[in-house]
Inverse folding.
């Protein structure tokens, strides 16, 4: 029996970590590659996020088909509430909650677009929401992006949900809606999320 391609093996193992432990794609891929002793290079490149996502969907269908749809819908409703609260920043939902692969272990990722990077933080203060501040990635001009993290109890799944609010420059939205290789969008606005929820009701 031929050996499994290293990238395929990493994708399959990373999918389990993403679903069961709520890990993000990048850290999950790197952990598996390290555990397998696979070094990144021309012959052993890490799998694409799309390849990992395909494995996540297969894993969910095999092990979580009875619980995942309800958990996903609950997380999407939490996301919608926050998008409505922060409507002035043109919020877009991304990550597993948008792509349809989230479970109760998944965080919600919202992209916010603002002229003033401090404005979303002020909005959270006005909402009396407890939050943490960190940096994640860089913007178009190399500046660090601010990530505001909030948490909320979700009664539907009887668990606490984490939301990461990534603050982008106001003009970055124009390039944010490029689809993946299969024509699926990486994120959606409030109206698009409402349509998803209505379709799954």
């Amino acid at each position: 029996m031929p050996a499994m391609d290293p990238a395929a093996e990493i994708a399959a193992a990373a999918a389990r970590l993403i679903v069961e432990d709520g890990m993000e794609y990048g850290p999950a891929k790197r952990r598996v590659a390290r555990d397998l002793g696979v070094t990144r290079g021309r012959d052993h490149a890490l799998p694409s996020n799309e390849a990992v996502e395909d494995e996540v969907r297969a894993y969910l269908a095999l092990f979580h088909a009875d619980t995942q749809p309800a958990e996903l819908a609950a997380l999407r409703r939490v996301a919608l509430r926050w998008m409505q609260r922060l409507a002035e920043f043109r919020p877009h939902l991304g990550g597993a909650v948008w792509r349809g692969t989230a479970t109760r272990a998944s965080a919600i990722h919202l992209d916010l677009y603002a002229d003033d990077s401090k404005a979303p933080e002020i909005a959270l203060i006005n909402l009396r929401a407890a939050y943490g501040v960190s940096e994640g990635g860089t913007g178009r001009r190399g500046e660090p992006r601010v990530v505001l993290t909030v948490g909320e109890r979700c009664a539907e799944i009887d668990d606490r949900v984490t939301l990461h609010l990534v603050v982008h420059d106001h003009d970055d939205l124009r390039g944010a809606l490029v689809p993946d290789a299969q024509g699926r969008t990486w994120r959606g606005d409030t109206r698009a999320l409402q349509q998803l929820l209505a379709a799954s009701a």
In short: The two ends are 45 Å apart (CA to CA). The mean pLDDT is 89. Residues 6-63 form one domain.
